[in-house]
Amino acid sequence: MPQNLIARTSSAAVLLTVGCLLLNGCAGHRTAPRAASATPPGQGTGGSAAAAGGAPSAAQSTTAPASGSASASGTPSAPPASAPPSATETGAAGASPAPTAPAAAAAPVGATSGSTFTGLAFDTCTAPPLATMKAWRGTSPYGAIAVYVGGRNRGCAQPQLTAAWVSAVSAAGWQLIPLYVGAQPPCQTGSSPEKITAATAVSLGAADGADAVTKASALGMKPGSTLYLDVEAYNTADTACADAVLAYTQSFDRAVRARSYRPGFYGFAGSSAAGIAKAAGQGAPDLPDALWYAKYDGAADTGGSFPYPADLFAGHRRAHQYQVNQQETFGGTTLTVDRNAWDAPVAVTG
Length: 350
Known about the structure:
22% of the residues lie in helices and 19% in strands. The protein is built from 6 helices and 9 strands, in the order αββαβαβαβαβαβββ. The chain is α/β, with parallel strands linked by helices.
């Protein structure tokens, strides 16, 4: 998802891709701009960018994920509609190959209990027009959408994302997942408008956590909402870098909790999310309530695909981004989206 940081150079992409392979796993760095859909006019997702890497193509058409139902354990059972991404997608160009047979559209999958949603969710760089959201509601298998509420590294314009849009989309039955693109790791290849340093990690985290709450509140997302901090991939072997990221995240979390919101975290399974899982296993304080991990294995679940010890982030506190850059059409409108299996907290609206 985090297809929305400022685009990096192709040489940086090569270096990071090689580094990821050596480390067994930076899961997909999307960069931008991701192509907008041409059908219908004005309904595309707009450009997007992420950490260093090549620019994935969104032009290849694929069909929607097959629908499924949430299991008793809270894990969506919907199978992916296409094969898992190839190795080139973990740092270079390419969308998942198209399936041999189209999957049937279905009513949205999922169930909501309090501020927790269990089902299928999608994210796209620019929040879609209200007409598109209404067209997808009841025709797509999705029940939730992630939206970029702020952060200096947010790369896509958000002309639709207003308090009125949030109110209308929520009234239509959608669950919302607020994502904040905060400061990025100091060892991350390329440049970002805001990067962490060892000296500024705590102060930046506090400022960004406060800003995330301000931005979410202005959109009508109430106290109790979970705000997901987007931290892109980095070299976890660089312990100073990892320590700075952890200090920043903990400070962000403290600031969010102090304002009666809940912190969540989005990261890549082999790097940024792995750092949070490691800290959780060590009993570190001030960690996120929920972990959203990017692992492009095509498995629409949050259980069997979970790459860390089973006791971590258990109890409806996991989400899994399992495919990226899928062009899908429902209700006559087309978007390019990333697919997520969701069993975690969302925004409180209404």
